[in-house]
Design a protein that fits this description.
This protein is an alpha/beta fold. Helices cover about 40% and strands about 15% of the residues. It has 12 helices and 14 strands. The protein binds NADP nicotinamide-adenine-dinucleotide phosphate.
Length: about 300
Amino acid sequence: MRSMKLGVSTLDVPVVAVGMMRINRITRSEAETFVKTSLDLGANFFDHANIYGGGTCEEIFADVLPMNDDTREKVLLQSKCGIRKGEFDFSKQHILESVDAILSRLKTTYIDVLLLHRPDILVEPEEVAEAFDILETNGKVRHFGVSNQNPMQMELLRRYVKQPIVTNQLQLSITNATMMAQGVNVNMENAAAVNRDGSVLDYCRLHDITVQPWSPFQYGFFEGVFLDNPKFPELNARIDEIAARYGVNNTTIAIAWLLRHPAKMQPVTGTMNVGRLADCVKAAEVNLTRTEWYEIYRAAGNVLP
Ligand SMILES: NC(=O)c1ccc[n+]([C@@H]2O[C@H](COP(=O)([O-])OP(=O)(O)OC[C@H]3O[C@@H](n4cnc5c(N)ncnc54)[C@H](OP(=O)(O)O)[C@@H]3O)[C@@H](O)[C@H]2O)c1
């Protein structure tokens, strides 16, 4: 699969990442086939989090892909920490303990990328910096990033943390593109003009932070998939028409739409279906025109001023 550098790092990553949040919903043998097929497709970047399945998603992954030295070199592992029951926690102790638990579940000695999962209101960035230094020095984490953070939160971290933030994982799909809509509605009185994210997309581009769109097929907050959904007739008609033009299906076009954005995003898919994953990977070869991109944007209900 086509690859790119993750943020300012030298890490080469496939342009489509494989999310592991739902791997506990399939059988062990399906999980084994899914992970092996991902690798065959060149999709070797796996996105985990310590909370997925209460830790079982990482365990299932390690179980179906035992980590000998040869295998470990062929995969890129990202995980996240910072969410606890009823609170968020970016304390040094929580970060360090979480990484040890992640490594033990994944049965590996290092992860390629660690993300802070959701902003902790009580964050003390000095503690994050200390934790990152320790994890970098002892070789447990190679690169660092964040998720669901706005520009000022990243600025606060960057004042103390010396490692570059290589990625920001954010909810983004065709039907959940408010971070794009606010940018074309500047100073308007309509709802789309409300800046909910502090212009995070432009900030990430300015600082070479790779945006990783999560839930690329969902509308709302895990409300369902917008493809083939009667709630979105105009959008689906437009996507299907464009898909036919390229000889691909609608799944491919939904990912191609994210990849067409010049921010050079790395969408994180959630499917556990090998055929759908192959359709997502195919998007790396589809380059939508500007007109097609805007047609899809407008068909999702976005209005240009
Ligand atoms: N940072 C964060 O806060 C955060 C939050 C949520 C998720 N994530 C990450 O993002 C990843 C993706 O999230 P997600 O699973 O919500 O994403 P998604 O790819 O939007 O949704 C995947 C789900 O949609 C279903 N689906 C139905 N039709 C589909 C189609 N045509 N194409 C693709 N999927 C279809 C899949 O079912 P099948 O399996 O049957 O295909 C699967 O259950 C997660 O695995 C996780 O790694 C991060």
